[in-house]
């Protein structure tokens, strides 16, 4: 561990309400849950802050339920819980597929969907699913609750619309009409961070979202429209290249990512035909 | 802070942000749990919290309050998995072994070879390869060899 303990503080809230008060009154404070991102940074000597708020025991933020036809997933719900949930398997198989490919069992037992969204990595594996299914992010602060469309949640690389004092309490997924599809391409099936990740819904107007090919997860609306209008998959692949902005980094190259993104688009279209 | 360690109620004083891995090794004197990568990739520090495998390098001590923690020492050297790892050559340098055994201990009783592979996908071994490890796990469950067939990964 390359971070000195003495400088750090972990605040234990008594309830969700108490946690929201702490977030209002004691900024800067970093909420933590499964710690699968925060402790990697801490171990590397680059902590996200010095004062942390322990959300992990707040069971009120766990669980998957249907509310008026909308699937509501508590922010603290782990990937393992999503994988085991009959409701999630029935309603959002693409989310279950994504959860199975995140890390390995040890990470799936600790990592949470709220954490994946809040961490705001462009490579987050559940994020294309939430984009393609037009999910809604439920945010709470001591001042109240607001709902933000997932596709308007990120404003730039690792930037979100969240205000200081707000936390994610749930992700809501409306009913999805059409076949869901998910594919992740990484160095290895387990533990690897995505080089390209895609989720899509095959419907008269297909919905397609990519991760790891732009500063944020992206929907590709012009590609979707072209396919909805009966355009060919070749035209769609050409259009896709105008809507993604892959870069060279430690995990892959822009050229590889562009090629693979087009291949994944074709695979989606063929496999869901 | 009170929690259950290897079946015994204990009260340990340590910083709430200290890694469970360091509390086990430094404050509890249980050095069977190893540090490999320190970033949740290698699984060497795998322990069970409330029966589920976690990487102890990514767990703040404050989050095990009131929970049940099981480490390799809790298997007391007499667990069928431990005997099978020895008997089947499931270990070489030994750094990954405690984590491998704890991850295996969390698997369902009826796990197929594919389940074992998935369940141990977060445990990296750089000496033996995995054949002896899978064989040891199968043997500890009273089978001659791994059940199921190997499928190439996509």
What does this entry look like structurally?
The complex is a heterodimer of chains A (273) and B (154). Chain A is an alpha+beta fold and 273 residues long. Chain A folds into three domains: 50 residues; 115 residues, Uridine Diphospho-n-acetylenolpyruvylglucosamine Reductase, domain 3, CATH 3.30.465; 93 residues, CO dehydrogenase flavoprotein, C-terminal domain (Enolase-like, domain 1), CATH 3.30.390. Chain A is 33% helix and 23% strand. Chain A has a five-stranded antiparallel sheet. In chain A, strand 8 and strand 9 form a beta hairpin. In chain A, helix 9 runs antiparallel to helix 10 and helix 10 runs antiparallel to helix 11. The longest helix of chain A is centred in the last third of the chain and has 18 residues. Chain A starts with 8 loop residues before the first strand and ends with a helix. The mean pLDDT of chain A is 96. Chain B is α+β, with helices and mostly antiparallel strands and 154 residues long. Chain B folds into two domains: 74 residues, Beta-grasp domain (Ubiquitin-like (UB roll), Roll), CATH 3.10.20; 61 residues, [2Fe-2S]-binding domain (DNA polymerase, domain 1, Orthogonal Bundle). Chain B has five helices and five strands; from the N terminus they run E-E-H-E-E-E-H-H-H-H. In chain B, a hairpin with a 2-residue loop joins strand 1 and strand 2. In chain B, helix 2 crosses helix 5. The longest helix of chain B is centred in the last third of the chain and has 10 residues. Chain B is globular and about 40 Å long. Classes of the chains: A alpha+beta (273), B alpha+beta (154). At the A-B interface, helix 2 and helix 6 of A face strand 4 of B.
